[in-house]
Specification:
Shape: globular
Number of helices: 22
CATH class: Mainly Alpha
Number of strands: 0
Helix content: over 70%
CATH topology: Growth Hormone, Chain: A
Structural class: mainly alpha
CATH superfamily: MFS general substrate transporter like domains
Distance between the termini: 19 Å
CATH architecture: Up-down Bundle
Radius of gyration: 21 Å
Strand content: under 5%
Order of helices and strands: HHHHHHHHHHHHHHHHHHHHHH
Number of domains: 1
């Protein structure tokens, strides 16, 4: 535990910067999907959505190894290495753009995801335990604000740079009568992504150096803080509330990415111009930012953390139903409003799921980070159902999102407490769930 309030605030500020950075990088995907579909001449949206698949599947494969790396390096060095790996992934975009090679772009995205898996495996439990557990969700919400402000900026910045005059470019490509002219236009477009990713690479390397030599305090999580009655548990798999939480986080990230990254493609499917849809991700993230702010000021004064999670899940069900029942910009508005429904889910699910794990906290956190792979699976399922003709655009969205919100509601009212009865005390149950965000 951090010993002084000054160190605590300094550490929170440093982690806030990290959350800003990986929020910026993560939410670039919403712009990269239409950009790469156009630049790499992809035939279907299913191919384009491998952008999110490659990026988020890295979490699944690297979360557990990341926990072992952090055990060896410590939190601070682990975060620094995560930034370096992200920088390597970013620099791969340069040869990928020069060759307009989609597989190379996906490689860069996967490597970025590797770095983020390491960074998130370190930073999420760190911010959870850097202060009192009863205020963990408040700290995570502050991190979420940093993340989503960056996310709001990233599609605006990248969209302006790489999708400038996208409508005109599409018309020019359609009008091109020979392959040489078309290739020149596409090569010029692909080159637009090089300078932004050079800048991102430099920023990541500089941050890695700053983190390495920062005053960020190390935390010892190897001590067994599990209550005495829990000493019989010998495996992380003996904590049902954690395993149910992993599923919950998988589904939550899936619908979050669906609302954030797929909103633009949803609009394109309805005939909206790319010059408009490239900014739609920002609307979703603005709604998420509003949700974080509302949560900080209303929980637990007006409702508990579990109730907030349950209410968020109900809002998800309502908004998803409205998306299916409407069309045009009204439907897009309800997709953006899913950001409001999703905002408080990560801050609620993560501390509820790792509560009472004691010496298994690092491994449990890694399992939860693996759940981020939901961002790879759910959006790809949506576009596959739609493009294969199994369901309409709105029906495919409904099929993917509605069951997820129903499960999240279950976790909010019951799942978070399964298997916790023997933890004895309200020290974990009450402190984590009733006093969160205090």
């Amino acid at each position: 535990m951090i010993s002084t309030k000054k160190n605590n605030h300094s550490a929170i500020a440093i982690i806030g910067i990290l959350f800003f950075v990986f929020g910026f990088v993560t939410w670039l995907n919403g712009t990269l999907i239409p950009f790469l579909k156009l630049a790499c001449e992809l035939e279907t949206d299913i191919q384009a959505f491998f952008v999110t698949f490659a990026f988020y599947m890295a979490y699944f494969f690297l979360a557990i190894p990341s926990s072992y790396i952090i055990k060896k390096t410590g939190f601070k060095n682990g975060m620094a290495w995560g930034l370096v790996v992200m920088a390597i992934g970013s620099i791969i975009f340069i040869p990928a753009a020069n060759q307009r090679n989609f597989a190379l772009f996906l490689t860069g995205l996967f490597v970025q995801g590797m770095g983020l898996a390491l960074l998130q495996t370190a930073s999420n439990p760190y911010i959870t335990i850097i202060g009192p557990i009863e205020s963990a969700a408040k700290r995570i919400s502050i991190m979420g604000i940093c993340n989503k402000i960056a996310g709001m900026l990233s599609p605006i910045i990248l969209g302006t740079l790489v999708l400038k005059n996208a409508g005109k470019l599409q018309n020019d490509l359609t009008a091109a009568t020979d392959a040489a002219t078309k290739n020149v236009l596409l090569d010029e477009m692909a080159q637009r992504v090089i300078m932004p990713y050079i800048i991102i690479t430099v920023v990541l390397v500089v941050l890695a150096i700053l983190i390495k030599f920062s005053s960020l305090p190390e935390i010892d999580m190897d001590e067994d803080s599990t209550p005495a009655t829990e000493t019989k548990r010998t495996s992380v798999f003996q904590y049902p509330h954690l395993l149910l939480g992993v599923v919950c986080l998988f589904l939550y990230v899936g619908v979050e990415v669906l609302a954030g990254d797929a909103i633009g493609m949803y609009g394109l499917q309805m005939g909206m111009p790319l010059d408009e849809t490239k900014y739609f991700t920002t609307f979703t993230l603005f709604a998420m930012l509003a949700g974080y702010i509302i949560g900080i000021f209303t929980i637990p004064k007006y409702c508990s953390q579990q109730k907030a999670l349950a209410i968020s899940a109900v809002l998800g069900v309502v908004f998803t139903t409205c998306i299916f029942a409407t069309s045009g910009y009204t439907s897009i508005t309800f997709i953006a409003l899913l950001g409001l429904a999703n905002a408080l889910m990560w801050p609620a699910i993560f501390p509820l799921a790792i509560a009472g794990l004691g010496k298994f906290t690092k491994t449990g956190s890694a399992f939860l980070i693996m759940g981020i792979a939901g961002g790879a699976v759910v959006p790809l399922l949506y576009t596959t159902l739609r493009d294969k003709g199994v369901a309409s655009n709105s029906a495919a969205f409904l099929i993917c999102a509605l069951p997820a919100y129903v499960y999240i509601f279950y976790y909010a009212v019951k799942g978070y407490s399964v298997g916790k009865q023997s933890i004895t005390s309200s020290a974990i149950e009450v402190s984590t769930t009733e006093k969160a965000l205090a």
